Amino acid sequence: MNTFIVKDLMVPLSEYATVQEGSTLFEAVLALEKAQEEFDYEHTPYHHRAVLILNKDKRVIGKLSQLGVLRAILPKNERTQHIEDISRFGFSTSFINSLREKYRLEEGILDDIYKKATRMKVEDYMQTPSEGEYVDEMTSLDTAMYQLVIGTHLSLIVTRGDEIVGLLRMSDVFAAVFHAMKSGELTE
Amino acid sequence: MQALEKLLDRIIQRVNINLRELGFDVTPYVRELIPRMQMFKFYAFYGITPHHPLNFQFTHSNLAGSYFLGKCRVTNSLLYKSDIRGDELKKKGTVFQFQEFEIPITRDEQIDIEDSFLIKTLVHNYSHDPETLEKFFIKDTISMHYANIHGSPSDGCFLGPFSTVDMTTMHDCVIGAFSYIQAGEISHKKIDPGTVWVRSPDNFNFLYRYEYNRLNKYINFTAGNRPKGLLFDFVEDHKKEFERVFALVNIETPRSVPGSASLDRYAVIKPHTKISENVLVAQRAYLQNAWLGKGANAQENCYIINSRLEGYDITAHGGKIVEADLGKKVFVGFNSFLRGRPDARLTIGKDSIVMPHTIIDISNPLTIPPDHIIWGLVTNKHDLETNSMPINDFSKIETKFSLGNMIFEGNGASFVSAFRHRIDHILEANGAFFNGAENKGHAQKNQSISFNTIQPYPMGELKGLYPSIIIQP
């Protein structure tokens, strides 16, 4: 385990799902699906779970996760905002869900989902990476693990100097740790 | 004068630092709100009684027109026409019950105000926070006109006009105008105007929110402006009468006041008012053609005009009752505004509970039957259908309920019981049940009170600041 460095486990940028700034949410979802189909699953069983957003200079300016897509397509209007506000006042989850259920029955939550996704621009919903989400490709895996855990990140953007070269996914780090555990069990 | 300006800057900065996470800047709300001339125009005064510890400490503060009773310390603060009423503070040697803990009180509780700016604010009751039992602190806090800080320690907060925080410790919060919060402890919350929230974790949770467009008619407070709306205009319209009672050194108590009742010399009493036995009328209360039956009370900033209260009625701090008839033991919560018309009277049946911050403003006669609970905004019979219900029905709620803009989760019986218990406690504390020998309360104890006045520096660099003063027996 302690001999691994980040670049040993990262997914190269060329294999990751990416879209240009200005793309729609629907185009991002298609890009994710395509990347998942083309990905080489020989070394890892895990699917991609996010799309990187690139600017015209091919630099990463944001990340759109599956959670981000779901968040984007949920309706946002006065009534849903009202329910979100109520949740700040200490009501139970089951109570808040009963309000959402009532809303769903009366107005529907996921109608026109395709139309919505073709109107939304990725940059409006992407997450801009914070300083703690970048890691140099030569960093040891042990150190990168700290960065994932302390920052509660699902992935880190891997750099080589000023260049972004890939992504270190939590799922791959977990798989490596799990593999090391099993190896230890066999040798003892 | 320079010292006063520096003090205001210091308070604004400290509150802003606390509220930076909420992105709230208090500066435009308070910077020019009170003309500086007003801040050295009025004297401050304190009460001396044999029933409350005498211990006042004022340091580097302006106290214009403010009133103090009980054990208070004020440091680096501006208090404008505020009431710091420490007659319910915990006493040394008593025991505070919190859940299964019995916590001994080792010294008299003190209201401790530091780096704060309170405008026409009432501070009353005692700290309900088990972590700070002997110090009821108000620190780095700004509160606007007619706010109530009731048993609620506060650190780094802004309270809008006519807001009330009741038995709730607050850290770094913004409380919108006309909001009522009773929630135990809150932090880093921005509460919208017109929110009425009563929560007891694991027991019940009541939430009502006024619609902005309807609330604006009654209270509207925006940056850079004085509060506006019917509530503010109503109070301002009666201001002149108070100037007279504050200007007079000696004022005679009307002969018709029974020996067991207490009528504060800083209350305004207009003709045709009837005060019965065990009635308590606090300072800054306004009575005009008001009939107060046995054990009724009118607390600070209350207005009772052309109205009849049958007896044991509570008009909590800031309650206003106009052209109305209330049966026995009707509770009118904080800052409620109940207004009938001469040709359209409001009648509320006995044992009813008018929730804090309720507005009933009618132009046709309206009768609310006995044993009802009323909340929110009621302007006609139609509104009443979605803003009230029989208390008995409310008590039957077991899990959740909603009606109009009100939502409730928890046990209705527990909610009603908490209110009933509190109503009885208030009546008892106010001396409503005094029988000539036992059950003395504020109505009887507050009769033996004398007042002293204190004044600020009249000119120079310290103009407007009061000299550091320690007043002890």
Short description:
The complex is a heterodimer of chains A (188) and B (473). Chain A is α/β, with parallel strands linked by helices and 188 residues long. Chain A is built from eight helices and seven strands; from the N terminus they run H-E-E-H-E-E-H-H-H-H-E-H-E-E-H.
Percent in strands of chain B: 25-35%
Shape of chain A: globular
Total tally of structural domains of chain B: 2
Total number of helices of chain A: 8
Oligomer: heterodimer
Record the strand order, biggest sheet of chain A.
Answer: 1-7-6-5
Radius of gyration of chain A: 20 Å
Compute the separation of the termini of chain B in Å: 32 Å
Number of continuous helical runs of chain B: 9
Biggest beta-sheet profile of chain B: 12 strands, mixed
The largest β sheet of chain A comes out as: 4 strands, mixed
Uncertain ranges of chain B: none
What name does CATH use for the topology of the largest domain in chain B?
UDP N-Acetylglucosamine Acyltransferase, domain 1
Give the overall average pLDDT of chain B.
Answer: 94
Q: Which percent bin holds the helix content of chain A? A: 40-55%
Full CATH superfamily name of the largest domain in chain A: CBS-domain
Largest interface: A-B, 9 and 11 residues
Label the structural class of chain A: alpha/beta
Notes on the structure:
The complex is a heterodimer of chains A (188) and B (473). Chain A has two domains: 6-70 and 119-187, CBS-domain (Roll); 75-108. The radius of gyration of chain A is 20 Å and the shape is globular. Chain A has 188 residues and is an alpha/beta fold. Chain A starts with 5 loop residues before the first helix and ends with a helix. Chain A has helices spanning 6-9, 25-38, 66-73, 78-86, 93-107, 113-119, 141-150, 170-187, and strands at residues 11-12, 18-20, 50-54, 60-65, 134-136, 155-160, 163-169. Helices cover 45% and strands 17% of the residues of chain A. A four-stranded mixed sheet of chain A has the order 1-7-6-5. With 473 residues, chain B is α/β, with parallel strands linked by helices. Chain B folds into two domains: 2-235 and 450-471, 3 Solenoid (UDP N-Acetylglucosamine Acyltransferase, domain 1); 243-445, 3 Solenoid (UDP N-Acetylglucosamine Acyltransferase, domain 1), CATH 2.160.10.10. Chain B is 16% helix and 34% strand. In chain B, strands 44-45-24-23-20-17-14-11-6-3-1-46 form a twelve-stranded mixed sheet, covered by helices on one side. In chain B, β44 (400-403) and β45 (406-410) form a beta hairpin. The two termini of chain B are 32 Å apart. The chains are: A alpha/beta (188), B alpha/beta (473). Chain A binds chain B through residues 85-86, 88-92, 95, 98, and chain B through 183, 189, 192, 197, 199, 201, 205, 207, 400, 407, 409.
